[in-house]
Design brief:
Elements lengths: L4 H13 L6 E2 L6 H15 L1 H4 L6 H10 L5 H9 L4 E8 L2 E9 L10 E9 L9 E9 L2 E8 L7 H12 L12 E5 L4 E5 L14 E2 L5 E2 L2 H9 L3 H7 L2 E4 L4 E4 L2 H15 L4 E5 L5 H15 L5 E6 L1 H16 L4 E3 L5 H9 L4 E6 H11 L5 H7 L2 E6 L2 H4 L2 H10 L2 E8 L19 H5 L2 E5 L1 H6 L16 H4 L6 H13 L1 H13 L24 H15 L9 H6 L19 H19 L8 H6 L1
Parallel strand pairs: 1-4, 6-7, 13-18, 13-19, 14-16, 14-17, 15-16, 17-18
Antiparallel strand pairs: 2-3, 4-5, 5-6, 7-8, 9-10, 11-12
Length: 616
């Protein structure tokens, strides 16, 4: 016989309030009137000095009730960001405007923060054809409902709790103080998920997230979830630290567990003056994680003067600037996407604790050319205690560039984000005493979330793997520990034109169904060929050109020609740099590839607008 939902509810409350927990169970709060009265009491207690021991009048509190009742969860989120961590309401008494602190997010697990648990709250109907509703468990911070939990027993799937919340939202039950809810949790005791608050029409099942522990093991049991996520300070931090406001889409985004663990690992490392890197697979939201970690470092570590989110100019132009501007709309963040170095100098020298988003190229100019030793600007900026967070840390910053920046900033911490770490087996070529691996450049790996884990969590798309090559390559490899010899062997095996021709034969002549060619022109699928290096990609590109023009022994079969006479149409892309050995060669080859593309598609791309080409 399944455990009753009321028993599950009571066990959760017991878990939240047990031992040294800061949660207090309030069984006396079950109606809207009681909820408002409790909020009013806490507000007056926390603002006695500002109110000069004079309680709020009915008209004053009526204004406050209106101010803290929001049209959407997103609007509530904007209010809850506050000013420098403090969330205010304002009243007018005579000629004086009084600013009352509702929440102080600097007081997590202490100070003026009050943590309460309520259950079986009754949301009464407004219209005759509606129904009264009872909510399961809600967590209040300073009297405000911020996390709401719906529970089922094991006879019902957790998704029933999700549909119940969605129905309550559509019915307008989350009104008044409940309009401030930022996070929902649903569970049937053995399977537990959380998601950001949104309008019913905006909710999707895909947004439901399972919690993972620091080793990326799933946490499904509702009591284990409570221990890991809903205790204090974690629950308060979920609201204050790990929700992002997307101004463009007008919605709340709540971080996934691996993103939160990475940010926490960075915070712990920074407390002891350690740098490091985060290995999160491509497509798992590295940019969001690195953005939020840069912001949180400034909030959490008082000894840091500035945090600088550093990325390559092309990345800022192409994908990140708009996203950051959207996130920063409700925050004190400077997104430096102009070409002028002077603006960066002013922001670094102004004495404000601030997060800055800028490019590696601009920082290099500042360090190598703009600032002169012996000047006040030079001395002030070089002495800053700066935490650099680098997105795509190997593409954005080379070993030499990092060394140049380190020589200037004497008190710098570095945190690199990458989906493709460089290890001993694929390290950079030795150049003097420059670092060759990710660990040598940035320090220890602080957190990892690999493609295997991301596919399991459905955070990224999975793969259908087919092994079409020989299965005994390793047995034929030379039995040696000589890394250079092994590298040469594998490069020769996979880098020969014969091998590349075999790969293209499968793609061009044996993938009729995979491309959907039977569907007809305009309804076929596209594909991406990824290889181990830019030179290999360029070799494949040249071979494809020869095959298509009939200048190679590999011929496209008649069946494919009949379906698509102009098959294949193809293009190449890779990262272009300006400060590496192959830069000129790669740029020249890309210039020729752009000419090919322009002839094929009637476009007008050049190296100057290659970012637009990549977006297309």
């Amino acid at each position: 016989m399944a455990v009753l939902e009321s028993t599950i509810e009571n066990r959760l409350i017991d878990q939240l309030c047990c031992d040294e927990s800061q949660w207090t169970y309030r069984p006396d709060i079950t109606t809207e009137e009681q909820l408002w009265a409790n909020f009013r009491y806490i507000l007056e207690q926390n603002n006695k000095a500002r109110l000069k021991d004079t309680p709020l009048s009915e008209s004053e509190f009526a204004k406050i009730k209106n101010d803290v009742s929001h049209a959407s969860f997103y609007d509530a989120g904007k209010w809850l960001v506050g000013e420098n961590g403090k969330v205010y309401v304002h009243i007018q008494r005579g000629d004086e405007q009084i600013h009352l602190v509702v929440l102080n997010n600097e007081h997590i697990a202490g100070g003026t923060s009050v943590y309460e648990v309520i259950n079986q709250y009754r949301s009464f109907k407004i219209e005759e054809d509606e129904k009264d509703r009872r909510f399961d468990v809600t967590l209040l911070i300073n009297g405000i409902p911020l996390i709401h939990i719906e529970l089922k027993n094991k006879d019902h799937p957790y998704i029933d709790g999700y549909w119940q919340i969605k129905k309550y939202i559509d019915e307008g039950k989350f009104r008044g103080l409940f309009s401030n809810v930022q996070m929902f949790v649903v569970s049937n005791a053995v399977d537990t998920k959380y998601f950001a608050a949104a309008r019913g029409s905006e909710l999707k099942e895909a947004f439901l997230t399972r919690w993972l522990d620091k080793e990326n093991h799933p946490v499904c049991d509702y009591l284990d979830f409570a221990k890991g996520v809903l205790k204090i300070p974690e629950a308060h931090e979920m609201i204050a630290r790990y929700i992002v406001l997307d101004e463009k889409q007008k919605k709340l985004l709540i971080l996934r567990p691996y993103q939160i663990h990475a940010i926490e690992a960075m915070r712990e490392a920074s407390k002891t003056g350690k740098s490091g890197y985060i290995w999160h697979t491509t497509g798992s939201g590295k940019t969001m994680t690195s953005y939020k970690s840069t912001r949180n470092l400034l909030m959490d570590i008082p000894s840091i003067d500035k945090t600088v989110f550093l990325l390559d100019r092309k990345d800022l132009d192409m994908q990140t600037s708009q996203a950051f501007q959207s996130y920063a709309q409700n925050d004190t963040i400077y997104v430096d996407d102009t070409e002028r170095v002077e603006s960066l100098v002013k922001k670094l020298a102004n004495g404000d604790r601030q997060m800055i988003v800028t490019t590696r190229q601009k920082l290099q100019i500042l360090v190598n050319k703009r600032l002169k030793p012996g000047t006040k600007e030079y001395d002030r900026i070089s002495a800053l205690r700066v935490a650099f967070v680098v997105d795509e840390c190997h593409r954005a910053v080379t070993p030499q560039t990092k060394r140049d920046i380190d020589r200037f900033f004497r008190n710098a911490l570095w945190y690199g984000y990458t989906g493709t770490p460089i290890f001993e087996e694929n390290k950079y070529e030795q150049k003097g005493d420059l670092p060759q691996t990710t660990r040598q450049m940035y320090g220890e790996c602080l957190h990892s979330y690999t493609i295997k884990e991301a596919i399991h969590d459905e955070a990224v798309l999975g793969f259908m793997v087919e092994n079409l090559g020989p299965r005994d390559e390793k047995s034929s490899a030379p039995q040696t520990k000589d890394e250079k010899r092994l590298k040469t062997y594998w490069e020769h095996l996979y880098g020969t034109e014969a091998h590349m021709r075999s790969v293209l034969k499968v793609i061009l002549n044996q993938s009729y169904e995979k491309f959907g060619m039977m569907r007809g022109r305009g309804r076929t699928y596209e594909a991406i060929l990824t290889v181990q290096s830019i030179p290999v990609a360029q070799k494949y590109y040249e071979l494809l050109k020869r095959v298509k023009s009939g200048e190679d022994e590999l011929q496209i079969c008649d069946k494919v020609k009949m379906a698509l006479p102009d098959f294949p149409k193809f293009a190449i892309t890779y990262s272009l740099s300006e400060n590496e050995e192959r830069s000129e060669v790669d740029q020249e080859k890309m210039r020729e590839s752009l000419k090919d593309y322009n002839r094929m598609f009637g476009t007008h791309y050049t190296l100057e607008n290659v970012e637009a080409y990549n977006r297309g």
